[in-house]
Amino acid sequence: MLRGIDLTKSFESCAVLLSDGNVRAYWDALGAVWTIGWGTTGSGVSSGTIWSRTACDQKLQDEWNAARNVVLRTSPVLAKYPDKLDACTDFAYNLGSGAYQSSTLRRYVNQQRWADAANEFGKWNHAGGRAVAGLTRRRAAEKALFLASPKTW
After folding, report:
1. Rounded distance, CA 92 to CA 100, Å?
2. Cβ(92)–Cβ(39) under 8 Å?
3. SS3 46
4. What is the C-alpha separation between 52 and 147, in angstroms, rounded?
5. Most CB contacts within 10 A, which of 68, 84, 87, 106?
6. Cis peptide before 16, with omega less than 30 degrees from 0?
7. What are the strands, taking DSSP E only, across the chain?
8. Model confidence over 122-138: pLDDT tens digits?
9. Residues labelled as active-site residues
10. pLDDT tens-digit series, residues 57-111
11. End-to-end distance of the chain based on CA atoms, in angstroms?
12. Are strands 33-35 and 50-51 parallel, antiparallel or unpaired?
């Protein structure tokens, strides 16, 4: 089972690798957004954007840490549960920290209603109004990791 940032890497992949080792932005039709590296979007990413692989790896680490910090700030109980924290961090990385903050998943985590929280992951598998196989697999992986933590409740 993949943990932490390796889980994120397994679903994002660092595309599109050019022959010189650099990475070019691509159009993610499902998200309707320009994307580069390990799923980075936003201002500064457009057609023709090229980054080094090192820049992609650094941006992933920075964004992963930012997502983790938000998850820990809004769900401090997760500091005691590293696998649950990693699952929620991947969720926040993929969907945005705001999605985690406003989610029923976070509410259940904070109430330590672990089974209910785990069942929330699967509800977040849509893009463009339809279920997406890759998101379904990702949410299942997050749920499995979330449930892998030692049961102390």
Report:
1. 6
2. no
3. coil
4. 36
5. 87
6. yes
7. 23-24, 26-28, 33-35, 50-51, 126-127, 130-131
8. 999 998 889 999 999 99
9. 12
10. 999 999 999 999 999 999 999 999 999 999 999 999 999 999 999 999 999 999 9
11. 22
12. unpaired
